[in-house]
Design a protein that fits this description.
The complex is a heterodimer of chains A (260) and B (698). Chain A has 4 helices and 5 strands, in the order ααβββββαα. Chain A is of the alpha+beta class and 260 residues long. Chain A is rod-shaped and about 135 Å long. Chain B is an alpha+beta fold. Classes of the chains: A alpha+beta (260), B alpha+beta (698). Chains A and B meet through helix 1, helix 3 and helix 4 of A and helix 1, helix 4, helix 5 and helix 6 of B.
């Protein structure tokens, strides 16, 4: 398949346009996801923080963590308020779950990596990621500074995609439509811009063929004095002259040859 | 539009590229940002509700304990940490049922009260730029107050504003890539073949039909070239038929007068026209300097992608050992890359002489691209250092091959134009690569960015493999000298004190500042200032951007005025003084001081880089004649790379003593002192004998 100049240029432009559109969309999406994820995490961190405060107030009264039975209701209420919450768990420093929105999970041990943040010297909020869920947590510290355990809240990783699926689909369709439209414009515009090059080259080819076949002169663009077309006109004339001269010479040689 | 000139066509195509790329991306960006902002409002609402519920519960508890709502104490102290922990919240307030503001933190009560009075018991209000969520405070089933949580609508826009910068980077990089590709398409498909056609036409219009233009493309230009070649070949065939016929008549005819007359005809045709003696028209091929520009651009793009984060990547492995501090381990990959380049550069010249530029480019790509690829999987700083040396060796081979290709493809009188092609490709690639590298590394990580580098380098190799004619090698730069002088005697150049001063006090400190400050200290300082990788990339890009603008201007000034020494001296001083900007006494923010220092470095090198190279033949033109300008300039580059090697190590050594910004200032001090010495020396440049020949003859 032969590729015209316009096709080459439009292919290059469309390829660059598609790459630019794709990169822009990917970067835009990731940035949006970052901002939204941090917002979601900060909301859940606040929920965890209020539960932590609630528990620590009671710990500071001298109650043991496993005795705070009202906390079970508090965490269940928080889960009911937000259907995106997968679960809220409160576990002690050894990793035993004391309270859980899923009551069947009470008494089991948490994964070892949930205990790692409790070993840190500062009781900072922590967040962990699993395959399909994210987790935000805060250590529970009594008024003597001892880490008694932690409260964690789990929510699904796919939450953002699920929540924003329709919005992202709409933006994706608009992006594809814009890319399609401008790809067509690129194609048409390339043919317009480069069409004149092709036309002039074809005109020069026709001139060459006509002058060689029928005689006459190539007429260069008067504005192109000393330019390519003027030199080309001289080339055409010289070629015709050479071809005719050789033809005449050949006839002359034939005539001389026949004299014998 | 003239067909043998590329500029008008390029201008049209570049305008077309802008019109094709900018509107859809801008349109979609604005649409998407609007959608994103709307998509975030429900999430902000939920957060405001969560905070409001907590505050309401606590206020209700106080009210249930019998404290009148308007007598609560410490509300401001209670609200303030909540506001500080949640930056999207602008204010918290408690209002009475009649709308009076009882307590507010974060906004003047006069701004809110009229709205509360008017709204009655509405729960959602828009007050100026704030969205206000009201939650009732109940006591014994009666509404006694409302807690208001106000968040800023502009907060979402401000959080999303970084997208603009990322997209702007992608768009500018795309436009530059589009420009490079269009440049390539036009030169390779139109200007190059038309230039050949021009040569053939010029010969033919003077009667010389001994050549046809090469080129096999299937486009309109290719068709035109083939039509012309067919015409010339047809004339050539007719000529050869005539000559064969004449030879036959001369050999076989018994009438001497006929033989004489056909001989006259043959002489006349040969006198009037010239046809190839080899039996067929020779195919005219010419390589253009621009043929290598796109592969060079892609290759340098690949290398520059790591610019914004290389020391940060090294830090990921780096724990100080007995011999090296952590900072030194972060600096060593940059230094050792420069060592690789320094070692391979002088050797690259002789390899090119044996194998040719195409093969050396492809050979150099193996260590370069392999180095990038394996860097993604490095798991110790030692591995990283070794891989950077390997990449440096490849980088030197590839860039020297490109320089040689351009040098050989450029006519002597147009050498500056050839240098412009090289510098242009390197600077634009540097701008795109550094900025895109930062954006990519932020999104996909350091490792994946190195893999992308390797892929880009491989694409550049594929282009060279496809586009450069393996047979079109040979040729020698016109200024390669007579080649009689040995390498050993090349070092006699250092006896020329002006040359030595230029190298030690101008070229070396310039490179020292470039690698020590820009490549090593800048990413580390900006990262510590909590700037993101795309921001670091965008800040570093200031340097090539300013370089690109200024170097063309300074080259012109230098050529027009001949004031090369002055420009080099002023450039050096600006670079040294610029690095002093982070001095604490100046009171500039570290990131701002660093950005200004980068600008100063760009100005410095923009002013001095071209005049510095142009000054070399001025200072030692006899040596240039003896050894060849290429070899003398190669020596200059080798020596100045010592500055590139020393820069990061020196900066890393300063950090434990003076800290990060102190290291910049200390490096600036070294550069400034060396530059001042050059200034002093430069006053004596014009006096006395300064040519080897003159001194020898003394």
């Amino acid at each position: 398949m032969s590729w015209s100049l316009a096709r080459k240029v439009s292919a290059a432009l469309v390829a660059i346009l598609l790459c630019t559109g794709l990169l822009t969309a990917v970067f835009g999406y990731y940035k949006f996801e970052d901002v939204l994820s941090s917002l979601v995490r900060s909301r859940y961190s606040f929920v965890v923080f209020t539960i932590k405060k609630n528990i620590e107030d009671r710990l500071n009264l001298g109650l043991a963590l496993r005795q705070l039975r009202q906390i079970q209701e508090t965490i269940e209420l928080e889960k009911v308020r937000d259907d995106q919450i997968l679960g809220i768990e409160i576990y002690d420093a050894r990793g035993e779950v004391l309270f859980n929105t899923d009551r069947g999970g009470i008494g089991v041990s948490v994964p070892a990596k949930w205990l790692e943040p409790l070993a840190q010297p500062s009781s900072q909020p922590f967040s962990l990621m699993d395959d399909d869920m994210q987790l935000v947590g805060l250590p529970l510290v009594n008024n003597l500074g001892k880490v008694e355990g932690a409260v964690v809240l789990r929510f699904p990783s796919a939450f953002i995609d699920r929540e924003l699926g329709p919005l992202l689909s709409r933006v994706a369709v608009e992006l594809l439509a814009a890319l399609g439209l401008f790809s067509v414009i690129a194609l048409v515009a390339s043919y317009v811009v480069l069409g004149s090059v092709g036309r002039r080259l074809r005109a020069m080819e026709r001139t060459l063929a006509t002058v060689l076949a029928e005689g006459g002169d190539a007429e260069p663009d008067p504005t192109d004095e000393g330019g390519f077309e003027s030199r080309y006109a001289e080339f055409v004339a010289k070629t015709r002259e050479a071809v005719e001269h050789i033809a005449e010479s050949t006839q002359e040689v034939e005539r001389l040859d026949r004299l014998a | 539009m003239r067909l043998d000139r590329s500029r008008p066509l390029l201008v049209r195509l570049f305008v077309l590229a802008i019109l094709i790329l900018v509107p859809p991306v801008a349109m979609i960006t604005f649409r998407a940002l609007g959608e994103f902002e709307r998509g975030m409002v429900p999430e902000l609402d939920k957060k405001a509700a969560a905070i409001g519920r907590d505050i309401t519960a606590q206020v209700e508890r106080a009210v249930e304990l019998g404290i009148p709502i308007d007598h609560l104490v410490g509300v401001d102290e209670f609200f303030r940490p909540v506001l500080m922990a949640n930056p999207e919240l602008r204010y918290l307030a408690i209002s009475a049922p009649d709308g009076r503001v009882l307590f507010v933190t974060g906004a003047p009560s006069a701004d809110l009260e009229p709205h509360y009075r008017e709204a009655g018991q509405a729960t959602n209000l828009t007050i100026g730029d704030f969205l206000d969520l009201a939650l009732p405070v109940q006591s014994k089933g009666e509404r006694v107050a409302a807690v208001h949580v106000g968040f800023d609508q502009g907060y979402i826009a401000s959080r999303l504003s970084d997208i603009f910068y990322d997209i702007a980077v992608v768009l500018v990089a795309s436009l530059i890539v589009a420009f490079e590709i269009l440049l390539f398409v036009v030169f390779f498909n139109v200007t190059g073949p038309m230039k050949l056609v021009g040569l053939v036409v010029d010969r033919a219009r003077r009667g010389d039909f001994s050549h046809v233009a090469g080129g096999l493309s299937g486009d309109e230009v290719g068709h035109f070239v083939r039509t012309l070649s067919t015409t010339i070949r047809r004339a050539d065939d007719q000529y050869r038929s005539l000559m064969a016929y004449i030879d036959e008549v001369r050999a076989a005819h018994f009438d001497k007068s006929v033989v004489e007359r056909v001989a006259e005809i043959a002489d006349r045709v040969k006198f009037l026209y010239r046809f190839a003696e080899s039996g067929r028209p020779a195919v005219l091929r010419e390589r253009l300097a621009t043929d290598i520009r796109l592969p060079l651009f892609l290759f340098v793009f690949a290398e520059e992608m790591g610019r914004a984060f290389m020391p940060l990547y090294a830090r990921e492995f780096g724990q100080s050992t007995g011999l090296f501090t952590t900072e030194m381990l972060m600096a060593l990959p940059i230094t050792m890359f420069m060592v690789g380049i320094t070692v391979a550069s002088p050797w690259a010249g002789s390899v090119i002489a044996r194998l040719g530029t195409r093969r050396v480019f492809l050979t150099g790509l193996i260590p370069a691209a392999g180095g990038y690829f394996l860097t993604a999987f490095a798991d110790s700083v030692v591995q990283l250092i070794v891989l950077r040396i390997v990449s440096g060796l490849g980088y030197a081979l590839v860039t020297v091959a490109c320089q040689t290709y351009i040098s050989r493809a450029t006519l002597e009188g147009k050498r500056a134009q050839g240098l412009g092609i090289y510098v242009g490709a390197v600077l634009t690639a540097s701008i795109c690569g550094t900025a895109m590298g930062g954006v990519l590394a932020e999104r996909v990580g350091f490792d994946a960015t190195f893999v992308v580098s390797a892929v880009l380098a491989a694409i550049s190799g594929w282009l060279v493999h496809r586009l450069l004619d393996p047979g079109a090698e040979g040729g020698k730069a016109a200024d390669d000298g007579d080649g009689s002088a040995s390498d050993k005697s090349l070092f006699s150049l250092f006896a020329n004190w002006r040359f030595t001063a230029l190298l030690l006090f101008a070229a070396v400190p310039a490179k020292m500042a470039l690698t020590g400050f820009l490549f090593f200290l800048v990413p580390v300082i900006l990262w510590r200032a909590e700037m993101s990788l795309p921001e670091i990339g965008r800040t570093i890009v200031l340097y090539p951007l300013i370089m690109a603008i200024l170097s063309a201007v300074s080259a012109r000034i230098s050529d027009l005025t001949g004031w090369r020494t002055g420009l080099v001296a002023i450039g050096g001083l600006i670079g040294g003084l610029g690095l002093l900007l982070p001095l604490p006494q100046l009171g500039l923010e570290p990131s701002m001081a660093v950005a200004l220092a980068i600008i100063a470095l760009g100005v410095s090198h923009g002013l001095s880089a071209s005049p510095q190279l142009a000054l070399v033949p001025d200072l030692c033109w006899i040596e240039c004649h003896t050894f060849g300008r290429t070899r003398v300039l190669a020596l200059v580059r080798t020596v100045e790379r010592l500055g590139s090697i020393v820069g990061p190590v020196l900066a890393a050594a300063f950090i434990p003593i003076w800290g990060l910004t102190g290291a910049v200032v200390a490096l600036g001090g070294v550069v400034l002192v060396l530059s001042v010495i050059f200034v002093v020396c430069s006053f004596a440049f014009g006096s006395g004998l300064h040519l080897v020949a003159e001194e020898d003859g003394e």
